[in-house]
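Now for my pick.
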Amino acid sequence: MAVTVSVLSKWRLASICDDGLNGPSLQPRRGVVPLLNPLADGTTARTAATLTAMMTLPKSPLFRSLAYLAAIAVCLLAIVAIRILEPADKALPVHGVYDELGHLLTAVVAGIGVRALRLPIPLWSMLLGGVVLDLGHVLQMMDYVNALEGSTRSGSHSIAVVILLACMGFLDRRRADIWLGIAIGAVSHLWRDMGTGTVALMWPVTETVYGTLYRRYLAGLAGMAVAMVGSAALLGVHVQAVDQEPSP
């Protein structure tokens, strides 16, 4: 009996040492019922698929589009708030602050559309373009230029100046993207000024001034941005569909 116990003890010790050196055996021992894996029925695969979907959700074209649309809505609400909160008996400096904020927000809305399309244009260049035309007001205050008849603005607020800014990209080709952003921001500036007053778009060909209703300015700005975001979503869905197609 003692011999039998000794042999069994040596066998157990050898088994433990073997498991410690070589790792536990993957084969179930005789007489031992293997434990059932509760995740072996496909739960692991479903959980992994759910986690993968959650991680890739921010990369989805539709998700990005919703985020861009939310940002556009916030900017439009801020533009309307500036219009409502601006004092009626405003002095020139006060009006300038409110007006420049409106121009910057208008350029941001255009920049969101550009960002959605993934165009290589820096947002800061569009913000710069959104206020650069108001240098004409500085020239007016210095008596270098005069406002045109029927408007409080000079010829600086015209398509000719926008074209000149865009053409600078052909001379400064390394910064052509920046000049393009400035030109786009200047276009947004003209559109806002048409909604809040009048501008001589065709100067120096003609000094006829043009304007529009404020609600048309808002509707045009929102429609342009939404169209750009929607176009980006369609292109993104198309790219995803092409990438997911099995290779021949």
